[in-house]
Specification:
10 helices; seven-stranded mixed beta sheet
């Protein structure tokens, strides 16, 4: 199996792709390409992968799409008179679901929440992926799977906050995260030691690595499936693959070399 993780940004330079090949008892990170990724690079990796994890929403809140459509036609914007109504415009069902489902021992709830694709700059890379991918199954049942690295790190008991950016404290947090990830996944190897250094230095490549691991968990049945993949919410808005707590160790290849 070839699992691919893509950390999507609006700009090529801030987009990262990491591939992991799982075969003959091995989980090997394939050599990283030049920093950044173009639309062509993304399409090529999607075509060649068995499954792809993308760190970006695959759809928009249905209530927002409906309201925007009415507004565009000159009709009245629906009345919103409570927090729940506003949240339905800002957040998809999967965003709210993940905030409730993400758990790990000692912490009742993750302090990480998906950003709003309808009211945040994340909408720009989401538009890019909608254009690049074209029509895809957004429910999590298809080849392309939506992932949220911070939530995956949380349920795996790893640092999941304050590891992004170039500040010294963020770099230290990122270094600690990679060390602990490798400790929990000793079966995960890289073709080149220099690639581990790049993953420590670049939070985009680190998120892409996590995305590739999550999509493997999805393939192995190690994600939370307590949702209806056939629902209109999952099919239209998209659904985030959330690994089960402690499932990172279970990704180990059954036959070690």
């Amino acid at each position: 199996m070839l699992s691919v993780g893509i950390d999507v940004a609006s700009q090529d330079a801030r987009t990262a792709i990491v591939s992991i090949r799982w075969s003959e008892g091995r989980a090997l990170i394939e050599p990283l390409g030049p920093p950044g990724a173009t639309d062509t690079d993304i399409r090529r990796h999607v075509e060649t992968a068995d499954r792809v994890g993308v760190d970006i929403p695959l759809g928009w809140p249905s209530a927002f799409v409906e309201s925007l459509g009415r507004h565009h036609k000159g009709e009245a914007w629906p009345e919103v008179d409570d927090t729940g109504g506003m949240n339905a415009l800002r957040l998809r069902e999967t965003d709210r679901w993940l905030a409730e489902r993400a758990r790990r021992p000692g912490e009742p709830r993750a302090r990480c929440h998906p950003m709003s694709v309808s009211s945040n700059l994340i909408a720009i890379p989401a538009m890019r992926m909608a254009r690049v991918l074209g029509p895809v199954d957004r429910s999590g049942a298809g080849k392309v799977v939506e992932v949220y690295p911070a939530a995956a790190l949380f349920v795996w008991g790893l640092p999941y906050r304050r590891y992004k950016g170039a500040r010294p404290d963020r770099r230290n947090e990122r270094n600690d995260l990679v060390v602990r990830l490798r400790d929990q996944a000793p079966w995960l190897a890289a073709t080149r030691d220099a690639d581990w250094d790049r993953i420590k230095e670049n939070d985009h490549e680190l998120d892409a690595l996590v995305a590739a691991l999550v999509v493997r968990a999805k393939e192995c049945g190690l994600c939370d499936e307590d949702y209806d993949a056939t629902s209109s919410s999952a099919r239209a808005e998209g659904w985030i693959a959330l690994p089960l707590p402690g499932s990172l160790a279970d990704l180990a290849p059954s036959e070690m070399p």
